[in-house]
């Protein structure tokens, strides 16, 4: 738009309901200035009106001081915003769309200059990769479905992310995974596999074809990556056996192979030649009809050195937000974010178990370091790692909808909780690779440690890519200082298993987690019930399992002092592993016997309130804060007190 058309801009904005307030006048001290950003901005504009806005959000960030607001006009902004100043407690700095505007901050850059790949190009590629000829790739080229362009996306192929028309494409792979990130095609190692060798008759490519390829394996709770040292028809041998378990398990270990252009033969797939800096993309029509983009920036807002910032109402695409260890009172409110984080190298050369399984837990999704920061009222979707990572202390994730995250199936989660004193409440989380909430408590970060609160969340379709897991999973060997996991609805997990079954539950306190209150949770569809305790390694001690619906499973709680001080009261449902548990120190009381029907209002439709005739009325030991609200003289067993208003879980939007 030409500079001379400012009046036209003002008229157009008025027609869509965008109000152009006057710039606040200065009075006693700084009252706060409103700046504007628009796609028609120019470098010489002062940004003080919608008619003469800044061109970039960063220009706002460079000048704003406490109390200022940046109003952003509709458009897509390809930048990482780094504020120059923090706000204050009384005067935060705010970034939000102008009234009626739709704003996207993108981490991508357009990729253009596509040309069809020819048979002559295949011959040229075959000089360094002879297997490119007579491959699915060469057949796709002959059919006119492969295009390429020169572009520098860096030396690390495992961070490349490509989009066509704002939908993520996938790297060429065998087997072709499809385009649903949480429902990829699975291929299992077959009989004869052992240690670092995968045997599978479906591996029909010539000897040597897969040598040098990248491999991803998954078994039990371990997703790992490595490379192929050698290959033959019917087998591939990895450079090292997967960590943690140190072997390939026939019919249980699933695997996928990438890094060979010969597999570029399916819609929505790409191959990147990092040496030649050339991107190849499969398309069944002319790529000029589509918008292709590559991720080139990690963050939309880099808040690692600022505090008292509010980001509200914007959309993020292929980018995220991160605060720093000294950040405080940052509020992220009402954003919509897609494709927050992406990577495909999990192991990164490590051979130890811990760093492999926890890949992405600390540094993916929206990352809140520091203290008293919040992500609220937001919709977050698609991430190789987390939706949200809570680090530091007293940070919160409240009233968010989070889905299709952890598509690599590591210990990343819808919300990954580290640090301590964190709050995760009233979120709806679904379709996740492993856990809805992964709780890895840490009291060694400075400040006075305190308990976490994980409450009123609705979590479903978990365990899609990993096993031995729960909707809310916590591990290992920590005193959780009365962390409370309460009033959550945990249901309908979606595990895909090989021949071996591993536990899937609602709340899982694994490997000696202690001093947790697990109360008033409701679960269904969980193979191990709503609550699972594992005392292996130390002690499942001083836990309180109160008033839950859906039963559970306890193990390694029977040995001397394996469950000292743990109380299991007022629950409804079948619990396995109770026989002999009191020998380990566990106390059992007032749980409705398995054979007694609790007479729920409508169990078939998951209404677990109690009918008038329910034997769970007047059943419970009174526990302040847990059994409050019953209209009976004695509280009820189960998660819903008779006569009380039924509580609800999940986001309210």
Order of adjacent strands in the largest pleated sheet: 1-2-4-22-25-28-31-34-37-40-43-46-48-50
Distance between the termini: 38 Å
Our estimate of the beta-strand percent is 25-35%
Count of alpha and pi helical runs:
5
SS-derived structural category: mainly beta
**Overall average residue pLDDT:** 94
What's the alpha carbon Rg, rounded to whole Å? 27 Å
How many runs of DSSP E, i.e. beta strands?
52
Low-confidence stretches: 1-28
Main sheet, how many strands, which sense, barrel?
A: 14 strands, parallel
Helical proportion? under 10%
From the spread of the alpha carbons, the general shape counts as globular
Compact overview of the structure:
By secondary structure, this protein is mainly beta.
Characteristic terms for this protein:
5 helices, 6% helix, disordered N terminus, mainly beta, 32% strand, 653 residues
3D architecture notes:
The structure is a single chain. The chain contains five helices and 52 strands. The chain has about 650 residues and is mostly beta strands. The strands form eight sheets. A 14-stranded parallel sheet has the order 1-2-4-22-25-28-31-34-37-40-43-46-48-50, with helices on one face. A ten-stranded parallel sheet has the order 3-5-23-26-29-32-35-38-41-44, with no helix packed on it. Strands 27-30-33-36-39-42-45-47-49 form a nine-stranded parallel sheet, with no helix packed on it. The longest helix has 10 residues, at about 5-15. The two termini are about 40 Å apart.
């Amino acid at each position: 738009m030409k500079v001379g058309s400012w009046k036209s801009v003002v008229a157009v904005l008025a027609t869509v309901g965008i109000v152009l307030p006057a710039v606040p006048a200065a009075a006693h001290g700084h009252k706060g200035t409103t700046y504007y950003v628009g796609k028609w901005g120019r470098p010489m504009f002062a940004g003080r009106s919608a008619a003469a806005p800044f061109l970039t959000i960063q220009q706002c960030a460079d000048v704003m001081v406490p109390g200022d607001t940046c109003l952003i006009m509709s458009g897509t902004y390809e930048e990482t915003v780094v504020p120059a100043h923090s706000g204050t407690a009384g005067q935060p700095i705010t970034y939000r769309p102008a009234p009626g505007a739709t704003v996207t901050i993108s981490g991508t850059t357009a990729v253009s200059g596509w040309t069809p790949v020819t048979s002559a190009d295949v011959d040229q590629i075959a000089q360094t990769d002879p297997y490119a000829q007579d491959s699915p790739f060469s057949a796709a080229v002959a059919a006119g479905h492969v295009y390429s362009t020169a572009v520098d996306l860096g030396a690390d192929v495992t961070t490349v992310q490509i989009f066509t028309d704002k939908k993520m494409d996938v790297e060429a792979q065998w087997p072709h995974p499809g385009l649903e990130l949480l429902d990829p095609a699975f291929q299992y190692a077959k009989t004869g596999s052992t240690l670092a060798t995968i045997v599978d008759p479906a591996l029909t490519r010539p000897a040597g074809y897969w040598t040098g390829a990248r491999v991803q394996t998954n078994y039990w709770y371990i997703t790992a990556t490595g490379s192929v040292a050698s290959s033959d028809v019917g087998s591939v041998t990895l450079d090292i056996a997967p960590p943690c378990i140190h072997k390939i398990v026939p019919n249980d270990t699933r695997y996928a192979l990438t890094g060979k252009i010969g597999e570029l033969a399916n819609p929505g797939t790409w191959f990147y030649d990092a040496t030649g800096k050339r991107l190849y993309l499969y398309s069944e029509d002319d790529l000029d009809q589509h918008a292709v983009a590559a991720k080139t920036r990690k963050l939309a807002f880099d808040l690692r050195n600022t505090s008292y910032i509010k980001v509200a109402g914007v959309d993020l695409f292929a980018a995220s937000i991160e605060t720093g260890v000294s950040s405080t009172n940052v509020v992220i409110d009402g954003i919509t974010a897609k494709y927050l984080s992406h990577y495909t190298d999990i192991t990164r050369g490590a051979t130890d178990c811990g760093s492999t399984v926890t890949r992405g837990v600390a540094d993916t999704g929206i990352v809140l370091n520091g203290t008293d920061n919040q992500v609220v009222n937001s919709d977050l979707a698609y991430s190789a790692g987390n939706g949200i990572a809570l680090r530091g202390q007293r940070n919160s994730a409240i009233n968010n909808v989070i889905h299709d995250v952890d598509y690599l199936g590591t210990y990343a989660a819808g919300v990954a909780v580290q640090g301590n004193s964190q709050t995760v409440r009233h979120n709806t989380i679904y379709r996740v690779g492993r856990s809805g909430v992964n709780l890895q408590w840490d009291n060694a970060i400075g400040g006075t440690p305190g308990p976490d609160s994980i409450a009123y969340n609705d979590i479903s379709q978990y365990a899609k890519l990993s096993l031995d897991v729960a909707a809310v999973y916590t591990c290992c060997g920590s005193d959780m200082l009365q962390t409370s996991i309460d009033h959550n609805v945990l249901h309908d997990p979606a595990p895909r298993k090989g021949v071996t079954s591993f536990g899937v539950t609602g709340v899982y306190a694994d490997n000696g987690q202690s001093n947790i209150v697990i109360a008033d949770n409701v679960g269904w569809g969980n193979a191990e019930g709503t609550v699972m305790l594992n005392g292996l390694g130390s002690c499942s001690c001083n836990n309180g399992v109160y008033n839950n619906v859906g039963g559970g499973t306890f193990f390694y709680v029977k040995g001397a002092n394996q469950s000292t001080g743990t109380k299991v009261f007022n629950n409804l449902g079948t619990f396995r592993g109770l026989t002999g548990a009191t020998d380990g120190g566990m106390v059992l009381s007032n749980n409705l016997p398995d054979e007694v029907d609790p007479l729920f209002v409508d169990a078939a439709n998951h209404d677990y309130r109690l009918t008038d005739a329910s034997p769970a009325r007047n059943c419970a030991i009174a526990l302040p804060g847990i059994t409050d609200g019953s209209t009976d003289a004695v509280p009820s067993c189960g998660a819903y007190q008779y006569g009380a208003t039924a509580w609800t879980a999940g986001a309210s939007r």
